[in-house]
Amino acid sequence: QVQLVESGGGLVQAGGSLRLSCAASGRTFTSHRMGWFRQGPGKEREFVAAISSRTGGTTYYADSVKGRFTISRDNAKNTVYLQMNKLKPEDTAVYYCAAREIRTATQALHVDEMRGYDYWGQGTQVTVSS
Q1: Is the per-residue pLDDT at 1 higher than 90?
Q2: pLDDT at 55
Q3: Can you say how many angstroms the Cα of residue 83 is from the centroid of all Cα atoms in its chain?
Q4: Residue 79: left (phi > 0), alpha (psi -120 to 50), or beta?
Q5: DSSP secondary structure string, 23-78?
Q6: What is the Cα 81 distance to its own chain's centre?
């Protein structure tokens, strides 16, 4: 069982930056693929970014955030980060951290879909004012 706790959300002006953190419990953090999703007002939850397990050598991004957001992980701290730059009002959403332990090729599928993750945090609000 993995517990995820997000932090770092808040109110920021358009063009500004925020860094979200997600602290994970458990001793198997390195074997988990980590992801960020978001859910804006009246919208469905959508994929934002993901980072592969182990060394995090592979990252994935939604087209809407490419070039502005960066996902990273610190295995020594059991933490994954989402650095968000050049924020736009349309980035306003509750941001959720997600995790899946990857042991098989099948488990590695669906990296940009909610069904590709087994554990979820409670979310942190990000509001970007225009």
Answers
A1: no
A2: 86
A3: 10
A4: beta
A5: EE-SS-GGGEEEEEEEE-TTS--EEEEEE-STT---EEE-TTTTTTEEEEEEGGGT
A6: 7
Distance CA 3, CA 82 (A): 18
Site of tokens 């490419």: 66
CA atoms of 114 and 44, how far apart (whole Å): 11
Burial label for 42, CB within 10 Å (0-12, 13-18, 19+), is: exposed
> What's the angle, vertex CA 71, arms to CA 24 and CA 13, rounded to 5?
105
Q: Is 94 helix (H, G, I), strand (E, B) or coil?
A: strand
Is the pLDDT at 122 greater than 90, yes or no?
Answer: yes
Residue 27's region, left for phi above 0, alpha for psi from -120 to 50, else beta, is alpha
pLDDT at position 58 is: 95
